Amino acid sequence: MAALFGRDLLSLADLTSSELHELLELATQLKSQKLKLQCHQVLGLLFSKASTRTRVSFTVAMYQLGGQVIDLHPNVTQVSRGEPIQDTARVLDRYLDVLAIRTFAQQELEIFANYAKIPVINALTDLEHPCQVLADLLTIQEKFGSLAGLTLTYVGDGNNVANSLMLGCALAGMNVRIAFPSGYAPDAEVVEKARNIANHQTEVILTHDPEAATKGAHVLYTDVWASMGQEAEAGDRFPVFQPYQISQQLLSLADPEAIVLHCLPAHRGEEITNEVIEGSQSKVWDQAENRLHAQKALLASILGAK
Ligand code: CP
Ligand code: NVA
Questions:
Q1: pLDDT band at residue 70 using 50, 70 and 90 as cut-offs
Q2: Chief localization class (predicted)?
């Protein structure tokens, strides 16, 4: 149970395949309420970007584990007035039991983790969104019974969510195809890591052809065309991304049993049509709920809840 005790989760590549499967199993047991765990510790949330799901699901997960949460918005801390990350990390380390950080540069998260001895969790950076993908895999496992051998196609920007999906699918024994417009590729180092994890047993395919990528896929996934921090580029991006919209027509190329996922927030009429996100194949609300169960399992494992 205490597989991740005391560990950071900065990237999904921090997990082995068996640790990922154990976490998903723990999340399933916690969700079904067959297992109840308590930890009574304190989680700090330090989020430099907006959040609905991540903030609330981490908070509720910690409350359900009997712990407490302090929402340390940077604007109300000395971080906003330039206190060095190294100093902030060493001080928060003395008060908190675990810290979840949402920020821009992955390097900032790594500095926090280096200076704080307590576990640090990536609650989204520009590079990765590992907690999201834990919930995504839980949702896919619930629908299909197991993960190995399934194909997930992500259509859109090669962003943080795409990067973590490549790692998560490779760890889970799934094939992953990323279809993106030229100039918006996922991170090259993450692609290499995912291919190393997949080790020629499963595919990690990058393509500019959304139709070819969608053919026969079990999961069709998208995310916003301009992530937080890229809002000024949105106008330039939209015409380039238009052929990468998930529409009913694109979905019809996927496996007939395929499900549609979106990490949310969604922009209907941009990366996904209203018809698809509100349609019968969309599992986005189950996916959003699973943020709670997956993160509760993660916290319980890291904190050694009993
Ligand atoms: N999907 C996700 O991380 O949502 P929030 O930005 O609302 O936390
Ligand atoms: N790629 C999006 C995900 C939001 C949950 C962003 O970083 O804004």
A1: very high
A2: cytoplasm
